[in-house]
Amino acid sequence: MWSIFLSGLATALSLLVVDLVVPGVRIETIAAAAIAAASVGLVNAFIKPILQTISIPITILSFGLFAIVVNGLCFWLSSLAVPGFYVKGILGFVLGPIVLSFVSTALSNYLTNHAPAFMRDSSDLSAENPSQS
Predict the structure, then answer these.
(1) Where do the TM regions start and end (predicted)?
(2) Which bin fits 60, alpha (ψ -120 to 50), beta or left (φ > 0)?
(3) Which of 8, 66, 84, 94 could bridge 59 with an S-S bond, Cβ 3.0-4.6 Å?
């Protein structure tokens, strides 16, 4: 449960970083960032696999570069669903999801490794101290 919360927090904070770094991406409020994080997660979970499956021939012909277009399309679709989250221009469309991926991964790893003990899964706690097993 806490891992889902930490992942969502990392994505929301990453979206704020994307807003600062990538021209063409704008997030108006922290609440919009939180809702956008949920929207990005839902689009990536449900719509992205369908788009990837449909675009397999184009992705193969482009040596995988079309996957960047699919990623950008999903990022843009998320922005359509959330008021206060805007993606405009080719830089926002292409660089936004790339920066989001790198920053979100780094923040997720940091938050997971530095979370207080009560936020960690019980399997993580037993792995840290094998003498308790």
Answers:
(1) 30-47, 54-78, 90-111
(2) alpha
(3) 66
